[in-house]
Amino acid sequence: MGLLEREAFLAEARFGVLSVVQDDGVATLAVPIWYSFTPGQEVVIHTHRRSRKAQLIRRAGRFGICVQTDTPPVRYVSVEGPVTSESHVGPEARQAMAHRYLSPQMAAAYLAATAEQQEGVSTAFHMRPTRWRTANYSTMALDLDKPS
Fold this sequence. Notes:
The protein is an alpha+beta fold. It contains 5 helices and 8 strands. A hairpin with a 6-residue loop joins strand 5 (62-68) and strand 6 (75-88). 20% of the residues are buried.
């Protein structure tokens, strides 16, 4: 995938798998997560400020995220890089993230149901992608179909 294709793919609403090195420096924590990305900018994730994810990201100063298609032929984009900032997640950012992943009706229900437990406890980590790994197996499949 070229730069524009990989950034456009990452900008689509897909579930990501966040990875961050654990305390032992060897194993990684890998968990599904909502994220946002605008081409040419940073990857942003939200999590509870005292969560295991937040603790590990602060300690490591970096994280990775991988997103993929759910059906063959598989395409994926994996990025990693340093955390550039951490910020409080306000109501507007919560709403934008919920509406990125859920229908308007489901987003409204989710936001209402989680308002009290999320108020003032979520943090956003901003990551500048410095390493990209990508694959588009649909092009590989086309190559395999060619007669030899």
